[in-house]
Automatic annotation (TrEMBL):
Signal peptide: 1-17
Top-rank lineage group of the source organism: Bacteria
MF term (GO), any: hydrolase activity, acting on carbon-nitrogen (but not peptide) bonds
Organism: Duganella callida
UniProt name for this protein: Amidohydrolase
Cross-referenced PANTHER family: ALPHA-D-RIBOSE 1-METHYLPHOSPHONATE 5-TRIPHOSPHATE DIPHOSPHATASE
Keywords, sorted A to Z: Hydrolase, Signal
Residue ranges annotated for the Amidohydrolase-related domain, each copy included: 89-242, 404-467
InterPro entries: Amidohydro-rel, Metal-dep_hydrolase_composite, Metal_Hydrolase, Metallo-dep_Hydrolase
Amino acid sequence: MRLHIMGAMLFCSCALAQTPLPSPEVAKFIQFNQPLIALTHVRVIDGTGAPAQEDRTLLLRDGRIAAITGPERAPPPGAQVIDLTGRSVIPGLVGMHNHLMYTHSINRDDEGKTPPPGVFVTEIAFSAPRLYLAAGVTTMRTTGSVEPYTDVNIRRQIDEFRIPGPHLDVTGPYLDGRDSFFPQMAVMTETDHVRKTVDFWAGEGATSFKAYMKISRTVLAAAVDQAHKHGMKVTGHLCAVDYRQAAALGIDNLEHGPVFTDTEFVADRRADECPAGGALAASWERREIASPEVQALIAELVARKVAITSTLPVFESFVPTRPLLSRRQMALMAPESLRSHLEARSLAATASGYAARQEALLKKEMAFELAFVRAGGLLLAGPDPTGNGGVLPGFGDQREVQLLVEAGFTPLEAIRIATLNGAQFMGRADSIGSIAVGKHADLVVLKGDPSRRIADIENVEIVFKDGYGYDPVRLNASVRGMVGIR
């Protein structure tokens, strides 16, 4: 009997050893870490699009949702009870166009142009994970990387509980073509090269890939084929290859929506070339979403099961008549990053007709996304914290949900797009993306009711990731003045 007991003790010790405890660096941001937690009197918005459930009790046990009951059932003995009267709980956000990088500053010469070798972005692997988690993002795809080794190592440290942050799907290095505007991107002009690159980064820990604007059709086809051999998906922010061509090649996902990226309607475009100037935008300015050609594009994307990622915040940041960043966001930014963004906004405001044109294009993209979903398409959500620096990690994810409502989705639909849809695309809907018994306790506690007032998505009070309750105020305070440089 004693030997049996000793064996059981050894087994338990091994099991515990495989589950790391929070490091001191993580523990200082955790408010609740009990193995049994009862969230009482809370409004449940489950992420499926179903109506909110009032006055529920969520029981969290060992990092999972153990039960969802009404107030008539008392929490079990020993549970840490948290009264959430007046609060709502939604699933953790699943960010599908997120980065651990940021447009640090926009380098221009005396003529206001960007000199060679082009635009540089800065890895912010310290501040970004904290900002995402503080905003309620519990899972995210990096959707292109300029420092893939950094991203892989950050994921490992998060998984080992050494630093705070969301669960990461690490996208490998950007797969771009010749003469990329970003010297930090990989130049892929040969099919053999791109296949070897996909193989290499699949072995190094990347879990998805992203093609970029100047990649050719033949190279993109090879990248998609090779990634699929590894069971991985490919997304793309394309230009030289249009949406219809990419869909025919088997791409899984297209970023940003077509109004700012799809070149198929550009007149006299050349094969495998990204049109210069404003030709792309002009081609969509002349297209109505209800037109036969746009409806045919939507039908083909839906038929081929190509998901679209909505990234409305990055495009909103280019509309100089839209609201500026909040004081809270400005305080988090490095001075140079803030100066650069405000300068970009100021220059845009002086261009004749620019604001009205950008606003019209933003509205058209919104209309496309609504029509795409109504036709049966899978829409994902992410902020893309690049552009002119006006989108911050985490804050941009919250703004994306608000802009989806502005686009015509109901608040419940917008929350589903930002949670369950991403989980479904990643093949993880059985464990994350909605609130259901047995799923991971990845939850966001909000003051108010975002099912009626979507602005309440910003009122984050607690973020649960795998059952640990994090303090968003402390997480944000830890990166004050660092966004853009660290």
